[in-house]
């Protein structure tokens, strides 16, 4: 009436249409409530590290030998690959690691394959160096750590922790559960020097016999009228007692010397200077990791 123009914009429209504004607000509120169960909860965002590692083992080499013989050649081969932003390397006794930092827009899988192709072409690496290992570094997020502790034998504690890990793995919402804080198992074979001299053996001969007798190989397949039959040799031994009957030496008179006759075999833990405790008692832990889009 006084000649002023009516206010324009969304706020003015809502002021003139209060019912529509309330309905719009209710729509947003209901939509938010319905979306809550589908929102993934996480402590930190899951992301893929933009680095590729090239690891090369060089047994017995000093850090300077690793640098000259391995790192410089690997760096030169991958520095010009598309998608690589920066190359860093570190040398330790017996191993060298080259880390390639990728550009933000680079495709990690493609760069990994390009780096692997370039590293496989290298012919200047030392003969004693092992085959390079190329991997894309991916972060795993631990969401739960469960600790089992008490005054008990290390073997019993490990068995108990494994049973807890297996129970957690049965949960359909858990993909990865890892046992931690315990020493790995190993089968210890101790051959006294007197036994080696008595039978004219060397440790290399004993080790070769054990290796030959603990293999798991595929032997191909045989086609029949009923279908194809797969042939497989499963001689892998998983307990120390199973190694005792491995033949080490056969004498001209037919006498067979077995591993159990010359060696002490026992199931034991790896000889590592590591001990995990909780409140002063021996402990083991089971760590649950978030995988993919899991909550």
Query: In what order do the strands lie side by side in the largest sheet?
Result: 2-3-1-4
The secondary structure category is: alpha+beta
What number is the mean pLDDT? 83
Radius of gyration: 31 Å
Largest sheet, strands/sense/barrel: 4 strands, antiparallel
The share of residues in extended strands comes to 25-35%
Helix content: 25-40%
E-strand count: 14
The H-and-E topology, N to C, reads as: HHEHEEHEEHEEHHEEEEHEEE
Ends distance = 60 Å
General form: extended
Q: Unreliable stretches, pLDDT < 50, 5 or more residues?
A: none
Summed up, the helix count is 8
Summarize it:
Helices cover 31% and strands 31% of the residues. With 295 residues, it is an alpha+beta fold. Strand 2 and strand 3 form a beta hairpin.
Features:
8 helices; 295 residues; alpha+beta
How does this structure look, described?
This protein is α+β, with helices and mostly antiparallel strands and about 300 residues long. About 30% of the residues lie in helices and about 30% in strands. It is built from 8 helices and 14 strands. It has helices at about 10-15, 20-35, 65-80, 110-120, 155-170, 195-200, 205-210, 260, and strands spanning about 50-55, 85-90, 95-100, 135, 140-150, 175-180, 185-190, 215-225, 225-235, 245-250, 255-260, 265-270, 275-280, 280-290. A 4-stranded antiparallel β-sheet has the order 2-3-1-4. Strand 13 and strand 14 form a beta hairpin. Helix 1 packs across helix 2.
């Amino acid at each position: 009436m006084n000649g002023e123009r009516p206010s324009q914009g969304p706020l003015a429209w809502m002021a003139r249409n209060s019912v529509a504004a309330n309905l719009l607000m209710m729509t947003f509120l209901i939509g938010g409530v319905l979306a809550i169960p589908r929102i993934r909860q996480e402590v930190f965002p899951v992301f893929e590290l933009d680095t590729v590692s090239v690891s090369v083992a060089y047994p017995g080499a000093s850090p300077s030998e690793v640098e000259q013989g391995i790192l410089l050649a690997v760096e030169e081969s991958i520095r010009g690959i598309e998608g690589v932003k920066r190359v860093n390397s570190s040398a330790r006794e017996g191993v060298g690691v080259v880390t390639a930092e990728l550009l933000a827009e680079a495709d990690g899988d493609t760069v990994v394959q390009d780096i692997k192709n370039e590293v496989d072409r290298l012919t200047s690496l030392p003969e004693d160096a092992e085959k390079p290992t190329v991997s894309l570094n991916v972060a795993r997020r631990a969401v739960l750590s469960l600790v089992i502790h008490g005054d008990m034998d290390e073997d019993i504690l490990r068995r108990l922790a494994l049973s807890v890990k297996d129970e957690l793995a049965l949960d359909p919402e858990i993909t990865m559960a890892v046992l931690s804080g315990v020493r790995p198992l190993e089968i210890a074979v101790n051959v006294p020097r007197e036994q080696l001299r008595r039978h004219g053996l060397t440790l290399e001969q004993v080790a070769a016999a054990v290796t030959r007798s603990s293999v798991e190989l595929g032997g191909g397949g045989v086609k029949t009228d009923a279908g194809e039959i797969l042939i497989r040799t499963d001689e892998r031994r998983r307990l120390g007692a199973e190694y005792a009957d491995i033949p080490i030496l056969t004498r001209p008179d037919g006498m067979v010397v077995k591993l159990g006759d010359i060696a002490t075999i026992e199931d034991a833990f790896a000889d590592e200077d590591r001990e995990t405790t909780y409140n002063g008692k021996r402990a083991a832990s089971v760590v649950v990791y978030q995988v993919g889009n899991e909550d």
